[in-house]
Amino acid sequence: MPIGSAALYALRRYLEARGGPDRGPVLVATGGRPMSNRAVYRAIRDLGRRAEISGVRCSPHTFRHTFATRYLTLGGDVLTLQRILGRSPRSLDVTCRYVTLVDADLRAAHRQFPRATTWPASPHESSPSDHGSGSGEDARGGGQPVDRRA
User: pLDDT of 10-54, one tens digit each?
Assistant: First the structure.
């Protein structure tokens, strides 16, 4: 699994403080027992509360989800993401759900910007005044730009 240099450095220091990498599980509870999934969840949740993070659930799943969506947003590809997340080749549809979420984020970001009210003059387009409202939008409403190339 890929890991950044800062995380790798911190992990090595942690393992050295425990007596080396061959001392059993990486995440341990009191007494050296492996941490359960539930204990990891609670530890992350409690760290989020101590950091006064609000408005979002702090959990291993949230970390994984945030990583996946950021990876795709910054140009990563789905097949590499699938391998990073440790998913089997048969589970590509599960990994592709992140693409759908990223697409939804892009559409939401696009809606934040005002639509153009004038159309640039080009040999393939007529002016908005030739089409009625002049708003660059379909006269039927709905706020969608009209494709004037037809």
Answer: 999 998 988 887 878 888 888 878 999 999 999 999 999 999 999
> How far apart are the C-alpha atoms of 60 and 41, rounded to whole Å?
6
137-143's contacts with Cβ under 8 Å and 24+ in sequence apart are 143/115
> Which secondary-structure segment (H or E) carries 116?
none
At 145, phi and psi to the nearest 5?
-60, 150
pLDDT averaged over the chain? 75
Specify the pLDDT at position 8: 93
Integer Cα distance of 60 and 55 in angstroms = 16
Q: What type of residue is 113?
A: F
Give the helix/strand (H/E) hosting 101.
helix 92-111
Any bridge partners for residue 21, and if so which? none
